[in-house]
Amino acid sequence: MEDIDYWQRDSLEIWRRGEHPELEAEWFVPFLDGRPPVEPVKDSHSRKTYRWQSPAGRVYVKLFTYAASDRWGDWLREMFDWKRYGHQQFERLLQLKENGFNVARPLLALERRESWLKRSSLVVLEQIKGTSLSAYLKEASVEEAYDFFERGLKVLQRMHALNIAYGDTKLDNLLMDEEAELAWTDYDDLKVDYRWLPSKLRDLRRYLQSWLKLSRKEERDICETELIERFHCINPRSMLVKKFIVHRARKQL
Hints:
Elements: E1 4-9, E2 12-17, H1 29-32, E3 49-54, E4 57-67, H2 72-80, H3 86-98, E5 106-115, E6 118-126, E7 130-132, H4 133-136, H5 142-161, E8 164-165, E9 174-177, E10 182-184, E11 191-192, H6 197-215, H7 224-234, H8 239-251
Antiparallel strand pairs: 1-2, 2-5, 3-4, 4-6, 5-6, 7-9, 8-11, 9-10
């Protein structure tokens, strides 16, 4: 992996790839302070994704938070959920890009540690021009929809073969770029070098569930049975795994 420049400035820790020295860290400090100069992206459900026209060009700013809650279970989960640290998220996105996945390039990362249990961080990403897959499918044919279903599923298989768990595989997080290729966004739950099977099964279940939701909308004539048959064809697995993915996906609709 390409070396990452790292330095500390006051209370900030900063990571940057050397090829983008024109991005100044100070431009993005207001995002960490809760006073960003722009409004969140309208289709961002978490309200933590911003599109900003920096002097170096238009970029996306993705915020991450880390804090312990009052409930022991949540606190324990967050304690071991170290993926949210900014520099590790930055390195993981670089690993995705260097493994040939179509993702926005990470350009800069900032992290501020207020205490041992509380920190805030952000990753600045290049802008991918495109539309969400869910919006694109409203105008696409049924044959195209099945094609994208299989293409996305094969990308997930390749991620899992490299022990990468994406974490939030819904259609709104997949983009169609200008070259009609799938681009993956929203990396809050991304895990790299992660061998725990349930997270990979959850990826598949959420992916299937997002397509089942689409198939139940009146404006799309996508057959639910056809989707599941294609899913089984591409993912030959034991009956137990099929039950975990398909049954749970249907149950949660």
